[in-house]
Amino acid sequence: MTTFELSRRAVPSLIVRDWAGSTNADLAVDVRARDATDSITPDLTTMITDNQTAGRGRLDRSWIAPAGSSLAISVLVRVDGIIPVETLGWLPLVAGLAMARAVDAVLPGAPGRAGLKWPNDVQIDGQKVCGILCELIPGSGVIVGAGLNVLMTSEQLPVPTATSLAIAGAEPDATLPDRALAAYLTALQSLVQRFRDGRGDAQASGIRDEVLARCSTIGRRVRVEVPAGSALHGTAVGVDQEGRLEVRDESDTVHAVAAGDIIHLRGGE
Questions:
Q1: CATH architecture, domain 5-213
Q2: Angle (CA) 39 55 137, round 5°
């Protein structure tokens, strides 16, 4: 694994693991242990590995990638007393926006190929390249986790709707993981600070407008499959102050969706 010299300059502490079960879980253990003493974990402390063996996605799904093909990235974001709990649903979108910027930074050609699918996917030309998972540690902050497909080949893709930076055209040399990570951490630090300065108000901070401009879900016909097993059909029309997707159904009622699988529908579906 690279030494990540560029990325080390972007955050106060970068922990590089040869392997990890889950960087989110491991960083959370470290944070709780240090915060229980006088040695408080610095804000934006980051843990990474290119060999995660027990990663978890949204809705507690497993996430595993071949060693060396992807980066598992976990960042501690301090929020207590700064960002209201009710607006923490914006953090996956903030992280997704940061990753979209990073993806654009390492891809050739004009920027703008990277977009967001609500609530936690980053896509290149509609193909998933990254998933985001945020986990609250009461009294300490939020662990912002990201799984980024970096050097994954077409044969290694978990599903046909996925892609990687290398497949999408990024120069697949030994520096790519560091370049992508450094760009992500730099963008994340800037966006998180704006979100804090706005006291968790995505509209006042300008983040809401940037997310909406990047979000391919907005304006699309969607089917929302919620954990309880029911489904909602309608058009995604916005994201509210708490980070929930706003879906207008056939009766013109707007529903605020906090969690669920979002399927983008075609034409007459």
A1: 2-Layer Sandwich (3.30)
A2: 35
The reply to whether omega before 119 is within 30° of 0 (cis) is: yes
**Amino acid residing at 137:** I
At 176 the three-state DSSP class reads helix
The amino acid present at 115, given as its one-letter code, is G
Instruction: Please state the domain extents for the chain.
Output: 5-213, 217-264
**What single-letter amino acid sits at 107?**
L
Coil, strand, or helix at residue 46? strand
Task: Report the distance separating Cα 98 and Cα 54, nearest Å.
Answer: 24
Would the CATH topology of 5-213 be identical to that of 217-264?
no
CA separation for the pair 116, 215 (Å, rounded): 4
What are the residues facing 132 on neighbouring strands?
146
Residue with tokens 């939020």: 142
List of E strands, the chain: 14-17, 46-49, 55-56, 62-63, 70-77, 114-117, 121-124, 127-137, 141-149, 221-225, 231-239, 245-248, 254-257, 261-264
Strand partners, 149: 70
Output the pTM of the full model: 0.93
More confident residue, 258 or 228: 258
- Which residues are CB-neighbours of 138 under 8 A, at least 6 positions away? none
Tokens of 255: 């529903």
Structure confidence at residue 66 (pLDDT): 84
- Distance (Å, rounded) from C-alpha 5 to C-alpha 194? 26
Beta-ladder partners of 117: 121
217-264 classified as CATH 2.30.30.100: yes
How far is C-alpha 160 from the geometric centre of its chain's CA atoms?
20
Q: What is the pLDDT of residues 32-79, one digit of tens each?
A: 999 888 788 999 999 999 999 875 655 455 556 788 899 999 999 999
